[in-house]
Design goal:
Oligomer: single chain
Number of helices: 3
Distance between the termini: 27 Å
Radius of gyration: 13 Å
Mean pLDDT: 96
Number of strands: 6
CATH class: Alpha Beta
Protein name: DUF4440 domain-containing protein
Shape: globular
Length: 113
Amino acid sequence: MSFETIDKLNRDFEHNFNNGQISEAVGSYADDARLFAPDNQVYQGADQIKKYYSETRKVGNTHVDLQTKQVIQCDSNYLIEISSYKVNAEAGNYVVIWRKDGQAWKKIIDIFN
């Protein structure tokens, strides 16, 4: 079940990001989330993460394709996702730590190259 759940959340993120709905895309992150981006910056919290993705779209990175590869359940409240992505023509890998927040899964750590 955890793979299907995370894969669905990834499809939702793709849809929102690709349609310019950055606030909705960032809704997949916890309030205390940290994003470790390829620009060697750490973006902490929803406002900074939203700014990162808004700037990403402004420079022409308008299409993301997430390929869910592996989801490891650590316990009932934490999952680790190891996957890959494409942004326009560039590709890379990422690791996300997901935490259960009530009934929803939220990203708390997002690291990609």
